[in-house]
Amino acid sequence: MKPEDTALNGSRIFIVAATWKICHLIHCFKPKRPEGNHYNSTSNDPTMRVLILGIDGYIGWPLALHLLERGHNVSGIDNFYTRKRVKEVHSASAIGIGTMKSRLNKIRDETGKDIGFVRGDVSEPRIVYDSVKKFNPDCVVHLAEQRSAPYSMIGLKQATETLQKNMIGTLNLVYALKDHAPNCHLLKLGTMGEYGTPNIDIPEGFFNIEYNGRRDFLPFPKNAGSWYHWSKVHDSNNLMFANRLWEIGVTDVMQGVVYGTRTDALMHLKSSTRLDIDEVWGTALNRFCAQAVAGLPITPYGKGGQTRGFLSLDDSIQCLTIAAENPPEKGEYRVFNQFDDYYSVMDLANEVKRIYDMGHKDPAVIENVPNPRIEKEAHYYNPEMKKLRELGYRPRRSLQEGISEIIRDLEKHRKRILGLREVIMPRTTWKESKGLS
Ligand SMILES: NC(=O)c1ccc[n+]([C@@H]2O[C@H](COP(=O)([O-])OP(=O)(O)OC[C@H]3O[C@@H](n4cnc5c(N)ncnc54)[C@H](O)[C@@H]3O)[C@@H](O)[C@H]2O)c1
Prior knowledge:
Radius of gyration: 21 Å
CATH superfamily: NAD(P)-binding Rossmann-like Domain
Oligomer: single chain
Order of helices and strands: HEHEHHEHEHHEEEHEEHHEHEEHHHH
Number of helices: 15
Low-confidence stretches: 1-42
Number of strands: 12
Bound molecules: nicotinamide-adenine-dinucleotide
Shape: globular
CATH class: Alpha Beta
Strand content: 5-15%
Mean pLDDT: 91
CATH architecture: 3-Layer(aba) Sandwich
């Protein structure tokens, strides 16, 4: 890690906050959709037909609302996999979200528009084929995967489920697109975790390499840290190959960790998205905020020097919208690194504590716990992130604003969170992943 990145000290926070403020003022902030940039259409109509696989999820639902507000025709598929698996570990979304039926009805009441919905498993080829054929999308956003690293490490059963379901869903999709929508843009969610933490800069997907006197431009080596992250690496390889075979236009998004509870569309339409805070399904920053609100220690793993890219939910939706509305060239496979900034886990714990303590009598407590994962706790980290910025992405929410909002929103659900206390602290350990028992 570069020395200047090792601490989220006061001056860095100030610079980030000031930069964000300037960006916010300049862009103020609906990104303009390029007219006539419709991937699959010969008409000048800039609206698209967007099919979202995983529409019931943390990112899928606010993305659907945002695209609907921008005039696109939105439909989705989900089998409520996350709801079921979260329940299995005796947990629940910290923020209640209602049934899909009630969500869809409410949006119809608010906007007069319908979001199409099919309940189904994308690892079933028929579900994907029928939906692609019927809806004839210009863009498919594929979010419908098992997305928890700890879940994939519980044992052989969960590892198998993660690798099979994730890879098969993506394979079903590329075949369905080849057969029924060959010009459709496939916007697929991968993760920055695919790259691991190499001791050199991380490019966006490809890099120039010279070896034994010869040069090439090759995919950057991947070095994932859980079966979940490896499933995304395998997806990326399969997408590259499908692109080579059938010229399917692909954006493979290497996304950082997403935090936050709010987006503009969620606020306008008085809706909410799920927020997982337990040790299996919750992600770092969201969980730290929940720990503070529940009066539990904030628990960075090990020394807390693990550094990762992060972005707010609002920025994730902004980036995905930009990617959807600026599709790749026909036959192009492109990789976007998608994050706002990178922070060490310890920096984030300190920042949550600082912000929480400003508004509360009893201070939050930080307690470093033994690291349940196999990962470096101090390392170099310098990923590139240029392509989305070139297309107009500017962060809309600062880290500080995001943390304050999560804390404020979670406080409204404090009772519910206190009921989840038992499942927040880490238990799943990589080394003890269970085999056949
Ligand atoms: N949230 C993050 O921090 C983050 C970071 C990097 C990448 N991602 C990726 O972004 C995508 C969305 O993440 P999220 O946080 O919204 O997760 P999520 O679990 O909240 O949403 C995924 C949705 O897909 C559905 N789903 C899963 N498997 C399915 C299947 N086989 N068939 C049909 N539906 C299925 C789930 O029920 C859920 O509603 C995932 O692919 C995830 O790996 C997320």
